[in-house]
Specification:
The complex is a heterodimer.
Chain A lengths: L1 E5 H15 L3 E5 L15 H9 E3 L4 H12 L4 E8 L7 H8 L2 H4 L9 E6 L14 H5 L5 E3 L4 H13 L4 E6 L6 E5 L11 E4 L4 E5 L3 H16 L3 E5 L2 E3 L3 H11 L2 E8 L4 H12 L9 E5 L8 H5 L5 H12 L1
Parallel strand pairs in A: 2-3, 2-4, 4-5, 5-7, 6-7, 10-11, 10-13, 13-14
Antiparallel strand pairs in A: 1-8, 6-12, 9-11
Helix pairs in contact in A: 1-7, 3-4, 8-12, 9-10
Chain B lengths: L11 H26 L14 H8 L7 E5 L3 H6 L4 H8 L23 E5 L5 H15 L5 E6 L6 H12 L4 E7 L30 E4 L3 H16 L5 E6 L17 H8 L3 H11 L4 H24 L23
Parallel strand pairs in B: 1-2, 1-3, 3-4, 4-6, 5-6
Helix pairs in contact in B: 1-2, 1-9, 1-10, 2-7, 4-10, 5-6
The chains are: A alpha/beta, B alpha/beta.
């Protein structure tokens, strides 16, 4: 059996699944318990698991991640919510300098099995301080796993894998996807980190996307097929670290072309790393330049007309691919 | 019931343990300084010379399964929990026998099996982490207490406030200990702080009692430590202790500490915890021979630790690529 649920509902189902699975899983964040989350992603968890395991915190992001880290170091598996991924900047020391480095600095004496979940990305007209797509910030820090699901089904399975991982995982929920529905089978779902998924097979070009850019890449592939006779293969990376380079390189070896679709701003976006790997390891297979479609290197504006002009759109993806394949 | 102000006499064994810890840390730190000058210890190091009584007083009041979080000035706190000296010295010398196999160095000494949950080198970072360990102890019902040491400069960073507030509202079994040695790095804490007592004067903001203790008196430290640790263990929540002390040297190896007035240095040197505790123990009838034996043993331990570290192999270069992930490796791709 399967049910049709939203990406938003998948979040609470995923957390509940893991809290039922393991007593050491606890959950903390701002407005996550009594209020059920500002995005209503965590409704019902307080009722089921009680206020010892589901905790409202003060607006203290360093305290949230510090509490999660200290608990993770001493036998718990905390899930910490940072309400908007923009707020990671207020506790970046904990993310990048403490959580990410502790196992290494102590030669493996300490493990930090925690998940930081956060609402990432634009499209909701929130303006420059509540819309950033910052998965590339996390990707550049050694010691962090970085996951960003594109469907409700993937969200549950990858979240379970993140909670069960003994490494710290940054889990980016793209907030424009919260109302999107998808089919999810009944029962426990546990996926595997570091595995990309080929969403649509194709022969002319490999389009690599993540999170909210996946449905746009898939829509672009339909247009490319119907209107331009171009067969695009779409790969959903699902996690940036670990990175499934095998799936990526095998695809580019067949198609000879690669386009990345990134919501993060241009400079040092994750696509730059992807194309550098392809350039180093798959150069002979290339039939044209490697192309990146990204949000331009600007802060995000608020107005509909302005924000829509910045995030990678179906039209921009189509245009880039047509130009490459011409 | 009225709160008693008479404190049970500290057992002789505990007093000798504290003297032993003070002397061992002093001798270790002096040797670490010398090894730096000899070029055997690299990077930087932050010594606790003059501040040993705080580590000794708290160390003697902690249960074996209690947890220590400390800063980059953490040799003392690491040693008093029982971490073997050769492994601490090995870490300073970058040897494979070091507590962190050479990956941590002086600023990141950690020995989980001795309850030393890490030495943290970003000011304030470990206060919320210590709160998290205390939260875990509360959730697990383990009865453990977490003790978190930090310097006076930490009281002006945001993480201090976030951690104190969270610990207070969640009534966490954690003791925050401010080692106030009057200087942050090169600047006097008094010159940049709105209140006179950087930690104690903030305590009321978290509903906590202001506690100031003479950090050069191991028995005063121990008495407070035993009280606030018991309070935490009994579910009474966190405490914030300000221990007044002085570092005899500069902030780090690179700092001769010349910004401090000579009269101030002289006044604090006269209160050096090593000779003053020695005098006190002698005055209380402890035999000279017994103290001399402790000192000789400390010297021998430091010599042996130094020799062991010097003889120990350097880590193999490939060790740089281990321990990033739980699988033991460093791979980020397939």
């Amino acid at each position: 059996m399967a049910e049709l649920i939203t990406y938003r509902q998948a979040v609470s189902r995923a957390i509940a699944q893991e809290m039922r699975h393991d007593e050491s899983v606890v959950f903390l964040g701002e407005d996550v318990a009594a209020a059920g989350g500002v995005f209503k992603t965590t409704k019902g968890l307080l009722d089921e698991f009680g206020d010892q395991r589901v905790r409202d915190t003060p607006i203290s992001e360093e305290a949230i991640l510090g509490a999660a880290m200290g608990a993770a170091m001493t036998g718990m598996r905390p899930i910490a919510e940072i309400m908007f991924s923009d707020f990671l900047a207020t506790c970046w020391d904990l993310v990048a300098v403490e959580i990410a480095k502790m196992r290494y600095m102590t030669a493996g004496q300490v493990r930090v099995p925690l998940v930081v979940r956060t609402a990432n990305g634009g499209g909701l007209r929130f303006g420059a301080q509540h819309s950033q797509s910052v998965e590339n910030w996390a990707m550049m820090i050694p010691g962090l796993k970085v996951v960003a699901p594109s469907t409700p089904h993937d969200l549950i399975g990858l979240f379970a894998a993140a909670v069960r991982s003994d490494d710290p995982v940054m889990f980016f929920e793209q907030k424009s996807l919260y109302p999107v529905k998808g089919e999810v089978p009944d029962g426990e779902i546990v996926d595997q980190l570091g595995t990309a998924r080929t969403v649509r097979a194709g022969t002319d070009v490999t389009v690599v996307a993540l999170a909210a850019m996946v449905p746009r890449a898939v829509a672009a592939a339909s247009v490319l097929h119907d209107e331009h006779g171009i067969s695009a293969e779409v790969i959903d990376l699902r996690s940036l670290v670990p990175l499934d380079t095998a799936t990526l390189l095998q695809s580019v070896a067949r198609t000879g072309r690669i386009v990345t679709v990134e919501e993060n701003p241009r400079l040092c976006g994750w696509g730059a790393e992807i194309v550098s790997i392809v350039g180093e390891e798959c150069f002979d297979a290339l039939r044209g330049p490697m192309v990146r479609v990204t949000t331009p290197h600007i802060p995000l504006p608020s107005a509909d007309a302005l924000e829509d002009a910045t995030l990678p759109s179906v039209d921009r993806i189509v245009e880039a691919v047509v130009k490459l394949c011409r | 019931m009225t709160e008693t102000t008479t404190v049970a006499a500290i057992p002789r064994q505990t007093r000798l343990r504290m003297y032993r810890d003070i002397v061992r840390v002093r001798r270790f730190e002096e040797r670490a300084y010398k090894l730096f000058m000899d070029g055997l210890v690299k990077g930087t190091s932050h010594l606790s010379i003059g501040m040993e009584a705080i580590a000794a007083g708290f160390g003697a009041a902690m249960r074996d399964d209690d947890l220590t979080f400390c800063t980059y000035r953490g040799h003392a706190h690491t040693l008093v929990r029982g971490t073997p000296m050769p492994r601490v010295m090995g870490e300073l010398l970058g040897r494979s026998t070091g507590v962190c196999g050479g990956k941590g160095g002086s600023m990141h000494l950690t020995s989980v099996e001795h309850g030393v949950m890490g030495s943290y080198a970003i000011i304030g970072a470990h206060l919320p982490i210590a709160a998290g360990a205390a939260w875990s102890a509360q959730l697990r019902g383990s009865d453990q207490v977490t003790v978190c040491f930090f310097g006076d400069g930490t009281t002006n960073i945001g993480a201090f406030h976030e951690a104190l507030n969270l610990a207070a509202v969640w009534e966490l079994p954690v003791v925050f200990v401010c080692e106030n040695n009057l200087y942050m790095e090169y600047t006097a804490i008094a010159d940049v702080t709105a209140v006179e007592r950087p930690a104690a004067d903030r305590a009321s903001a978290y509903g906590l009692a202001p506690i100031v203790v003479d950090g050069n008196d191991p028995e005063a430290v121990h008495e407070q430590a035993a009280r606030v640790i018991q309070r935490a263990r009994d579910g009474g929540g966190p405490s914030l202790v300000e221990a007044l002390t002085y570092r005899h040297g500069g902030h780090s190896r690179a700092d001769p500490g010349t910004y401090r007035p000579q009269e101030e240095i002289d006044a604090w040197l006269a209160r050096d915890p090593v000779p003053s505790y020695r005098r006190r123990l002698l005055g209380d009838g402890v035999a000279e021979d017994e103290l001399a034996a402790i000192e000789m043993e400390a010297d021998a331990d430091v010599d042996a630790a130094t020799e062991a570290a010097r003889q120990a192999p350097f880590p193999a270069p490939e060790e740089a690529f281990t321990d990033v992930w739980a699988d033991g490796g460093s791979s980020w791709r397939n």
